[in-house]
Design goal:
The chain is of the alpha+beta class and 398 residues long. 58% of the residues lie in helices and 15% in strands. Helix 1 packs across helix 11. 38% of the residues are buried.
Length: 398
């Protein structure tokens, strides 16, 4: 009996008992669909993070300082001095201070923006922020702690009817003049980067009572990022005498760390989802064992007509493989639908703008191959049992 004929018989066998066939495939369908969804969402998340890091620039260097427990501290002047002494490697710097959750008063309403950040005049260029109207913070604003701010497009449209420039908002008991409106980046939705306020970091330090939480540098080039990082680390080590109080990391290193974390998490989740494939394989083996018992007389007749062990074994293995393959195809279709639906849902959430599920061809191919492999492996035992039946005993079987 050829492979084609065995395949046709396998399909006919499935069609004669549709409910049992579906229940047999269920574990495979769920396992394959789960693998496709997890990999698609994971790849989508990785792509979104890569895009975000690329938008920040390959030359970004972040310095975080936590000087709790140390008698020494880093001041913005220290970081500006490092930049001025190393113009070949460091081009710009901005301290940043997060004010945290704080109520803000427009001319008619009170609201709480997603974030209130303090930065310098270089904050926009380092963060690749562009303006739709007005200007950004200037050196004199920072130096004199002038009450000026730049707002996101959501705040401009929602609370100022698109005409915020020159008007004021109440923040920390002071009136801040709006001097600039940021270009829309997330469809002007609440909770996104369009829902933020940027003020001079000197004002932010006063409002929050916090020291500068970190610094963002622009390196001269991607190739010199390692040297730039070493310069900053040497300066901080000289100040603190211990590297436990700070961290210096480049954008490339941050991206590598995030991708490593995502890869580890994806491996764990895929391994958990693969348990369904194991369960599905056990289900196929059980049904095939039942099928061998039900078709014992058929096996005896075929053996009496000259069928060899390899023919009987091959027929049942092909039936098991066909069952798991069809389940795999259904699982792939279901997984793609679920991945696209979940991707659209996540993409519509605040803060996840630009997220899309990315079903990869390699993931689909691997999931299908594994599903077929599971069917063949777990179908071998029943197939081998069928092949070893004595034809005389099989013909007598009732």
């Amino acid at each position: 009996m050829g492979i084609k004929q065995s395949f046709v018989l396998a399909v006919k066998s499935l069609l004669t008992s549709k409910v049992r066939a579906v229940l047999t495939m269920l574990g495979i369908i769920i396992g394959v669909a789960a693998v496709i969804v997890i990999i698609s969402l994971g790849d989508g998340m990785t792509k979104m993070m890569n895009d975000q890091f690329e938008s920040m620039g390959a030359n970004l260097i972040q310095v975080q300082v936590w000087d709790f427990g140390s008698s020494r501290s880093v001041s913005p002047e220290d970081m500006y001095e490092v930049m001025e002494r190393n113009p070949k490697y460091l081009k710009a710097v901005t301290p940043y201070v997060s004010v945290g959750s704080m109520s803000v008063h427009s001319e008619e309403e009170t609201f709480t923006p997603k974030s209130i950040m303090g930065g310098s005049e270089d904050y926009a260029s380092i963060q690749n922020i562009t303006l739709e109207r007005g200007r950004f913070l200037q050196y004199i604003d920072v130096l004199r702690q002038q009450k000026v701010c730049v707002i996101g497009s959501y705040i401009n449209k929602e609370y100022y009817d698109g005409d915020a420039l020159g008007k004021t908002l109440g923040l920390g008991g002071y009136n801040y003049t709006i001097v600039g409106v940021l270009t829309e980046s997330a469809e002007s939705r609440k909770g996104t980067d369009d829902d933020q306020i940027i003020i001079p970091y000197t004002n932010a330090m006063y409002l929050s009572g916090n020291q500068v939480q970190g610094y963002l540098f622009t390196g001269a080039s991607k190739e010199t990022a390692t040297i730039s990082r070493s310069i900053l680390e040497n300066r901080l080590l000289k100040i603190f005498g211990d590297d436990d109080y700070y961290m210096v990391v480049t954008s490339a290193e941050m991206l590598d760390m995030m991708n490593t974390m995502m890869g580890t998490m994806m491996t764990v989740l895929v391994a958990i989802a693969a348990i369904s494939l194991l369960v599905g394989g056990i289900g196929i083996m059980n049904i095939m064992l039942v099928s061998v018992s039900e078709r014992t007389r058929e096996i005896g007749i075929r053996k009496s007509l000259g069928a060899k062990r390899k023919d009987i074994r091959g027929q049942f293995i092909i039936e098991a493989g066909t069952t798991s393959a069809i389940g795999g195809v259904i699982g792939i279709g279901l997984g793609l639908l679920m991945a696209n639906g979940a991707g659209a849902l996540i993409g519509s959430m605040d803060g996840a703008d630009g997220f899309t599920a990315v079903p990869s061809v390699s993931a689909i191919a691997v999931a299908f191959g594994v599903s077929v492999g599971v069917g063949i492996v777990f179908g071998y035992l029943p197939a081998n049992k069928a092949a070893k039946l004595n034809p005389i005993d099989a013909l007598r079987y009732e």
